[in-house]
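Have a close read of the entry that follows and walk me through the local backbone shapes. See right below:
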Amino acid sequence: MNAKEFKRIAFVGATKNPSKHGNIILKDLLNKGFEVLPVNPNYDEIEDLKCYKSVKELPKDIDVIVFVIPPRLGLEVAKEAVKVGFKRLWFQPGAESEEIKQFLEKMEVEYSFEKCIMVETGDKMFLEV
């Protein structure tokens, strides 16, 4: 999975708290020119963007769903995402687990573990038109 090819990224675990990775990563991706769709059931809007309550609400033309939530929550959200048709999931370091890996492999879903989306998109400063 090549993160530099992404354009439209759903971001599970986005938050308004500027000291949390869910906000730091969100702002980083926005500053690099990605279209980011935050997902968090606790907010209506984050960084002036509509916030989706669940992955079930997302448009289907998402390139990848990035997870920055604890693995115990991530497994349930991953199951929900796969159930509604998403096939590319990216788990930030600390968001992955063996249980999630087994589920994704069983479902034949493309996934990334251990790689940081900010690092992997490091030299992408804007989207090509």
